[in-house]
Amino acid sequence: MNFIVKKLGWENAAQLHNSAANIYKDFIAWNSQTVVVSAMRSPDFNTTDQLINLWKELWYEIIEEKIVFDIIDNIKNFHLNLLKCEMLCSKDKLIKIVEDLFLDFKQSISKFILEKNKKLLPLKENDYSIELENWEKLSIIGFWEKISAKIISGVIDSMSTNWICSKSIDLWNIISNNDLENKSRKDVFDMLTLKLSDLIVEKTKGWNIPILSGYIWSFPEWIEERIGRWYSDATAAISAVWLARKGYGVVIEIQKSVKWLLSADPRILDNPDNAKIIEKLNYLTAREITGDSWAQAKLLHPQTLRSEVQESWIKIHLFDPFSWKPGSWIVNENREKDEKCNWITFIWWRKNVIFFSISSGKMFEKSILSRLFDIVSDYFSVDIVSSSETEVSFTIDWNWKCEKKLEEMTNRIKKEFNLLDSSTSEFVEYKKNRALIFCVGEHMRNYIWLMAKAVTVLSENKINLKIVSQWRLQRAMIFWVEEKDLNKAINLLHNEFIK
C-alpha cells in the first residue's frame, strides 16, 4: 500500500487552493495521505520574523502593549486578507475560525503581560515560547502552524463532498516528559515516529485526511539538541519513517513556491534559461546542495534528509502539481554515469567571505591547530579549512558588524603565537571581498580531469584562484576567488559542465 506524506506551505491564495485541490485529487485516486503544514508567509511578509519581533517586545522589562498588539493585528490581517482573495470555497466559516484563534492568542498574551510570575522560554535558537503562572505554555511560533492546519482543513472540506473529512491535529501534546526518561536519541526518535504513524493510520481510516500542524514542541532542551529543531519538514520526515517501517511505500511530497532544484541560481547566469532542473539525485548529493543555508535550504530543509529517511528507502519529490515540469526526485540509490547525467549537477556561490591566513614555522607543533580554533570559535564559525606544514587558511562569513570582532580575534592569535612583528615568512592576515564557488555532483569520483578542466577554464579567463579544494567523498570541489570575478567564474563553469 502506498502512502503520501505532503509538506505544504503557501505564499498566496492560489497556492493554498491548488494545494487543497491536489490533496483532494490524490484522495479520490485512493492514495492514502497525510498533510504537514507550515506557517503562511509571502515574499513581502515573513510571519516567523513577525513572531520573533513579538517575542522580543515581550522580553523588555517595560512592555509596550500597543507595539505588541499591533504586531499581532498585522499577522491577523495578513491571514484574513489571504482568505478574502478569490478562492473557490466558502470563506465566511474560515474567517470566523481564524478570528476566534487570534482572539484566544491575544487573550493569552494579555494574561502574560499582566502576570508577575511569567517566563519567556527561548529554549533554543529560533524557538520562542511563553509560560504563565499556572504552568500554561504557549509556543508563539507553533501557534501559527496550528492556524495553517485549521485553514487548509477548512478549504479541503469546502471543496469536497460530505463523505470526505479532514481534521487538523495539534502535535504539542503528542509526547510527555515521562515518556522521555532515560531515553537515548534513537529511542526518542523511534517513539515519535511510532506515535505519529499510529496517529496517522488511525485518522486515515474511513474517509479522513489528517492535517498536522508541523511544529512539535514542549520537549526538554536536551531532546531537541539530540534530535534536531522541529521544523515542519522534520515532522514530515518523522511521519514517513515509521509508515515505511510498517511496510508502506512512502513518498514525501514537498510543495512550495520554489518548485524544484536547479543547476544554479538563474539570476546570476548570463542566460537564466540555461539553469537546468535537476530531475533526479541521491541523498548524499541532495545534502551537499541543501546543507548550505545560502543555497537551496529554503526549498528543502536538511532535516528532511535525515539518515533514518534514507535508510527507510523513502523517496522525496519536490514539484508543482499544476505544472507539466517533472520537478526533482531524491532517491536512495547511486546511478551509474550515463548520457543523461552530468558529472557536475549543481553550482553555487557565497559572497562576503573573509580569507584568514596564518603562516609560521610553529604550525607543525603538537595541538597548535586545536589552540588556534579554540580562539576562533569565540568569535566566528569556520567554514572551509586548508593547511600545510607551515600555513593554515580558513574562511569565515563577513558582515559589517564583525569588524571589531575580527580585529580582536586577529590580535589574540598574534599574541598567542608570538607573531606581533610580521615578516614575509611569518604573518597573520585576512582579506575581505572574497567568494566561494561550490561545484557539486554525483559522478565526480575517479574523474580527476574535472578539477583540471575547471582550473584550466578559469585560469585561461584570467580568474585568479586563491585555493582549490576537493572533499574526501569527491562530491564537491570548491574554488576561492575574488568577489569581482564571481559572476564570470560561475558562468564559465556552468557553461562548461552543465549540458
Explain what you see:
The two termini are 38 Å apart. Helix 6 packs across helix 8. The radius of gyration is 25 Å and the shape is globular. A hairpin with a 5-residue loop joins strand 4 and strand 5 (137-139). The protein is built from 14 helices and 17 strands. Strands 6-7-2-1-8-10-11-9 form an 8-stranded mixed β-sheet, with helices on both faces. A 6-stranded antiparallel β-sheet has the order 13-14-12-15-17-16. The protein has 2 domains: 2-257, Carbamate kinase (3-Layer(aba) Sandwich), CATH 3.40.1160; 346-497, VC0802-like (2-Layer Sandwich). By secondary structure, the chain is of the alpha/beta class. Helices cover 38% and strands 21% of the residues. It has helices at 13-28, 47-59, 65-83, 92-114, 142-159, 185-203, 221-227, 232-245, 283-290, 307-311, 368-376, 403-416, 449-460, 486-497, and strands at residues 2-8, 32-37, 119-124, 127-131, 137-139, 165-169, 208-213, 249-255, 280-282, 315-318, 328-331, 346-359, 385-387, 391-397, 427-440, 465-470, 476-482.
Give the SSE map.
Elements: E1 2-8, H1 13-28, E2 32-37, H2 47-59, H3 65-83, H4 92-114, E3 119-124, E4 127-131, E5 137-139, H5 142-159, E6 165-169, H6 185-203, E7 208-213, H7 221-227, H8 232-245, E8 249-255, E9 280-282, H9 283-290, H10 307-311, E10 315-318, E11 328-331, E12 346-359, H11 368-376, E13 385-387, E14 391-397, H12 403-416, E15 427-440, H13 449-460, E16 465-470, E17 476-482, H14 486-497
Parallel strand pairs: 1-2, 1-8, 2-7, 6-7, 8-10, 9-11
Antiparallel strand pairs: 3-4, 4-5, 10-11, 12-14, 12-15, 13-14, 15-17, 16-17
